[in-house]
Amino acid sequence: VSGSTSRGRAVRIGAAVGGVVVLLAVPDLVRLSDLLGLRPFAHGLTIGIAAVGLNILLRHTELVSFGHAAFFGAGGYTTAIVSTYLGVDSFFLMLVLGVLIATVLAMVIGALSLRHTGLYFSLLTLAFGMLLFALVQGNDSFFNGTDGLFVRPGGGVTRPDLLGISLDPVAYDAVTFYVAVGVAVVGLLVMYRIVRSPFGNALDAIGQDRTRARFIGLPVKRYVWGAFVISGVYCGAAGALWGLYSQSVDPATTLYFLVSGDILYSAILGGFGTLVGPLVGGVVFFVFRDLAVITEYDSAVMGTLLIALVYFFPRGIVGSLKDLVARGVGTDPPEPPEPTEGAEAAEAAEGP
Amino acid sequence: MVVELESILRPMLNGLQSGFRLFLIASGLTIVLGILDVLNLAHGELYAVGAYVSTTVLGYVLGLFAAPAAGAGLGIQVAFVLAMVLAMLVAAAVLIPLGAVVEAVFLRRIYERNEVYQLVLTFALLLVLNDLLLFGWGPTKVQVEAVASVANGFPVVETLLGFQYPTYQLLYIVVGAVVAAGLFYFFDRTKTGRIIRATAINREMATAIGVDTDRTFTLVFALGAFFAGFAGALYMPQAGAQLGMGASALVLSFVVIVIGGVGSLKGAFVAAIAVGLTTNMLSATPTILDLSNTGIPWNSLVTAAPYMLMIVVLLVRPEGLYGTWGETS
Predict the structure, then answer these.
(1) How far is the C-alpha of B316 from the C-alpha of B329, rounded, in Å?
(2) What tens digit of pLDDT does each residue of A52-67 get?
């Protein structure tokens, strides 16, 4: 291992630890000023977790899903339904059930959507997402239509319990946020293992050339389906966490196709060629948007940011930072591939 | 059980109208997708731009006249028709250059890049256009009803069939049909239309025989923008213009172009009418057959029906009803 590479790794580990510390400090930091609340951070963090999941499809199998709001919404709505109708009051039980339902849904939608690739895959995922949205929004008696549901045990006024402890509102928000940070860290570590496993390498091969991948004996359909389900698990966890944090879910902010867009654009903004990019993208996207609300024209601000992304930093925030660090550290040419970080370094060398 | 003629004809006419509206919007989206190979997420906003622009033009022009009293002279009626035509012309004057600029300035630079960036860029344009509308016309719904109410002053359906139905909606169907016929004529019979089709079928060959593809692309995009805007301008007197109208029009256009076959104009036409009729007839079914109390979630079914159709088509016959227009699907 050369000196410059170990320095590169030190930078990476430092950035990771720093990122976690900053995230954990957020609930305290936001109290210092009225400019920002905790909510946009929590929203961005959960969408970011979903984007990390989506990225396994986007980065490795090169499939663009425009319907992952279905799984985000399924996670969120599960927390609302089991608490409102079944009287479940345990935070972690709701989270697990949310993930479970989203996973089952991803198994079904994945099996059907993956009969196509390219544009038709995107449109199929979009159609399934919108189908779910329409069914939920049009139903007043069970899903409460456009207004959505509260995540309150038994339809009461109390918040979900954390390991049997009932918390006051401020503490509840903060603890939920910490749990989300924990889920994000675990999610990233798991994803790190997945994309570096033989399975992850196979996905890369499939993304580059499906026919060739099939010829060398890879079970293409089963592997891509596996990746789809994994992305559904992440989105389900993210949606459940968002339901638990905001204590309410409605179709427009969890199931509408624009939410699928939020997840997709967070991944690209953060850098879909990187592991942590989507998470960073989610937080930046939502915090930035929350700040831009002051201008009343937050959509235009976000639109301009995305236009700038397309023309000036197409590799996203983390991708571009990596380029800068690589140049600063003086690895020239960029880091040589080595066993543990082969995929990323190779991509850094090739560009998007 | 006696089913009245009205209870069937009314949703049928509504369905036809929404079918023609959908066709006008989706035609541009499908042609742009077929030829430029770009899924333009900002397409719905162009529809909204048309609606908003027409509120201003109509509001201004009609402000010059007094509100039409009942039984007002023919002069006023003619003035209203002229105002509507003027609104269409202004919508064209705004949307054709807007479409041309979007294609030539923004899209042209990314045709060669990963398709993901097309989705990012057109979504970014959606956001920016949406806020331009917010900036120009404010967050509340705007509507200039006068044109519709003047048209409704001639109760055509009531005279012919004996039940009340807004004449403006009939007018929409007629205008929609004329424009649709014009579009088909343009692509089948005119030289420019044939050049566009040739470009769709084989871009390289078209270039080889001297077609300027850059210009063709810009023209196609501007045309698509105009028809979306036209649909919006025509719909405004009836339903008003509001933020978010673009997004819902966009997803329904996806449904239409998928069912019809990506890039196929004929397919888009058949699919648009089919989607319009299906949703409207379905939402009228509980009344017609007296099924409202059977516990069937009609609301959900009506809004979900287009997506179910889309999914079935994608799974069973992904090339759509009429297949793709060329090789550039």
Answers:
(1) 18
(2) 999 999 999 999 999 9
List the 174-233 stretch of A: residues with Cβ below 8 A of B: none
Q: Which helix (H) or strand (E) holds A248?
A: strand A248-249
Phi, psi (5° rounding) for residue B155?
Answer: -75, 75
What lies within 8 Å, CB to CB, of B317 at 6+ separation is: none
Is A325:A11 a contact under the CB 8 Å cutoff?
A: yes
Nearest to B260 by CA among B15, B26, B43: B26
Rounded to 5°, angle at Cα A286 from A19 and B101: 125
Which own/partner pairs from A140-146 qualify as long-range (CB within 8 Å, at least 24 positions apart)? A140/B299, A141/B297, A143/A77, A143/A251, A145/A251, A145/B299, A146/A250, A146/A251, A146/A252
**How far is residue A344's CA from residue B105's CA, in Å, rounded to a whole number?**
33
State pTM to two decimals. 0.88
Whether the CB-CB separation of B51 and B245 falls below 8 Å is answered with yes
CA-closest candidate to residue B233, choices B98, B90, B115: B90
* Nearest CA among B37, B20, B23, B22 for reference residue B263: B37
A138: nearest CB among B116, B247, B300? B300
φ and ψ of A90, to 5 deg: -90, 125
DSSP three-state, residue B242:
coil
**Candidates A115, A122, A139; nearest CB to B315:** A115
Interface of A with B in 278-337 (CB under 8 A): 296-300, 302-307, 309-311, 314
User: CB neighbours (10 Å) of residue A274?
Assistant: 25
pLDDT on residue B82: 81
Q: How far is A126 from chain B (nearest CA, A)?
A: 9
Give A133→chain B minimum CA distance, Å: 8
- What are the CA-CA distances from residue A224 to residues A38, A55, B315 (Å)? 36, 13, 18
Q: What is the pLDDT of residues B189-217, one digit of tens each?
A: 899 988 888 888 888 888 898 888 889 99
| DSSP letter for each residue of B283-314 | HHHHHHHT-TTS---HHHHHHHHHHHHHHHHH
Q: Are A343 and A192 in contact (CB under 8 A)?
A: no
- Report DSSP letters for B217-237, one per residue: HHHHHHHHHHHHHHHHHHHHH
Task: Identify whether A333 is preceded by a cis peptide bond (ω within 30 of 0).
Answer: yes
Which pLDDT score is estimated for B3? Answer: 65
Distance from CA of B294 to the nearest CA of A (A): 14
The nearest alpha carbon in chain A to B328 belongs to A119
Longest dimension (CA), chain A: 64
